[in-house]
Amino acid sequence: xxxxxxxxxxxxxxxxxxxxxxxxxxxxxxxxxxxxxxxxxxxxxxxxxxxxxxxxxxxxxxxxxxxxxxxxxxxxxxxxxxxxxxxxxxxxxxxxxxxxxxxxxxxxxxxxxxxxxxxxxxxxxxxxxxxxxxxxxxxxxxxxxxxxxxxxxxxxxxxxxxxxxxxxxxxxxxxxxxxxxxxxxxxxxxxxxxxxxxxxxxxxxxxxxxxxxxxxxxxxxxxxxxxxxxxxxxxxxxxxxxxxxxxxxxxxxxxxxxxxxxxxxxxxxxxxxxxxxxxxxxxxxxxxxxxxxxxxxxxxxxxxxxxxxxxxxxxxxxxxxxxxxxxxxxxxxxxxxxxxxxxxxxxxxxxxxxxxxxxxxxxxxxxxxxxxxxxxxxxxxxxxxxxxxxxxxxxxxxxxxxxxxxxxxxxxxxxxxxxxx
Length: 421
Hints:
The chain is an all-beta fold and 421 residues long. The protein folds into 2 domains: 4-57, no CATH class; 62-416. Helices cover 2% and strands 38% of the residues. The chain is built from 1 helix and 31 strands. The strands form 4 sheets. The chain has a 25-stranded parallel beta sheet that branches. A two-stranded antiparallel ribbon has the order 1-4. The protein has a two-stranded antiparallel ribbon with strand order 2-3. The longest helix is centred in the first third of the chain and has 10 residues, at 8-17. It is globular, with a radius of gyration of 26 Å. The protein starts with a strand and ends in a 19-residue tail after the last strand. The relative contact order is 0.08.
């Protein structure tokens, strides 16, 4: 509830002079000592001078309406409990955690820019269970989340979390890796809203060695959610990660990510169409085991007996490593996960690029579910990629052909303004 404050100046004036308002219930326009006509305020007549009734609402961390003082472009944070809009006519400064609560929708107009205060783990956007985001950017007017730092870098702020009620491996619910929110359920067609033509840069703030934000994270997001044309640049952890859920995604780009370009775990069963991930030649950031694709069936391989483990479909994939830092694997599927992958292309961008493995389906905490793995990929040996470097597992089907033509068009991502080398 908002509190109404009467300015201390007004209170003091009333106490010392005994001034009183006109008995009329209608506010009286008055000219005060500063010579300004205060026609929209109630004047208090004090013997020829006037003190306007300085009434203001106190911020309380809850955004309950479009005209709520907490919906502040210069200081955006708090709990969103009503349907509100971030308008494109101004730049918004995300200055803390922004939680959209159940029953509320956060709308963001096409062309809007949101700049996050560079401060790490306490600056992020979370669309909680039962809430929605409505971010319908366009190719001509994308929505951009970025850092407010003068010299931005990966990890400046958290990222965007969508949290739904779709199934996860093992059933039931779980708690998010960061910020401790509940996700999971039984609603496959759960709807967390719309994200189209949205870019997120300099994300991935790290809480510790085991907990970190991603660029955009999908926690048990359902397949009624619309996710199309996203881009993540310079993330300190993964660009995208799916924790269970059934959400389908289309046209996702990942550029210069420290860890995994595309990651899933805990029972994701959606379909991804046209994924494009790359590391530039001058990208030298190091993490323990960066990958192009990393797919787990259950969370961290700790529940191998879980039902409903990951088994996504990917149609259209490009993975290019141009960096001098070795990637652990270009494609890694493990810990009970299945995968149907078609129209894929994997390459190095220069002679300095390397990877521990081209394709690896094995892991100390459990191999991929071989009977559910069907991979068809073009490996570009002309770039130095060893297309015979494959670690398979029983019953898996892997078809590799040698070729030079990427399977996903760069033109899909022209809206970002990114210039391909």
